[in-house]
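User: Earlier you gave me the apo prediction for this protein. Now I'd like the version with zinc ion bound, so I can compare the two side by side. Same sequence as before, with the ligand SMILES added.
Assistant: Got it. Here's the input I'm using:
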Amino acid sequence: MLVLTISAGTAVALWLIYALIPTCYYRYWRHNPWETATAERSLLLSFDDGPDERYTPQLLHILARYQVKAIFFLPGFKAEQHSDLVRQIAGSGHQIGFHGYCHRNPWAMGWIRTARDFRRGIGVLHRQGIAPFWYRPPHGMITLANLLCAHRAGMQPLLWTVLVGDWRNIGGDEVLARLWRQVARREVICLHDSGEKTGGEPGAPSGTLAAVERFIPQALAAGYRFVTLGGAVEAKADGDLGEDDTR
Ligand SMILES: [Zn+2]
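And here is the structure of the complex with zinc ion:
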């Protein structure tokens, strides 16, 4: 019985150190890396879980209309299936970040599985000529394993300050209302241009796109500007690309 009690306590302590504390630190205490370098009222748009042939081209069209650049966090398995869309995103001047390969919850993955997922996912992007600098863990869950893998690959974690639950099919009006409830000054906005096989509800990105189409002109009219993470990425482009494709 004593042994069982100690084991349970040890397991909880290890879980706290491995997953909960790193996630809370990055979500609630750590400032965004770009925060001090950007002006007041600046917004970074990020789109997770694509590309998706039904929604991503429409989104690119909307962004192009307002000349707004964004960052797309692509799970490796989607990037692998839609290399044409990956090219289209990069060719339109947007940035591409790393979102794991299989999009499983990192809290449920140990060191070996995490390292394998990184190698496979980064390999997919490297084969498409993309060296990601920013890493967004699937479901926003940080662990010591994915922090170490990101560090070894020369990437930095980037979470968000605005998250509106647009992976649920709540419609454009609601997505827009939630955006404006959360946006204050300098924000990293996390939206989703795809939900297929990553936990999103079918059709949900339609609401996201409808909201983005109205949000961008409203934000511009309100004096916000849309920023990118260009500086860090350019610095990265001259350096080591991190772990190579060892799939
Ligand atoms: Zn995701």
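For your comparison, keep in mind: The chain has nine helices and eight strands.
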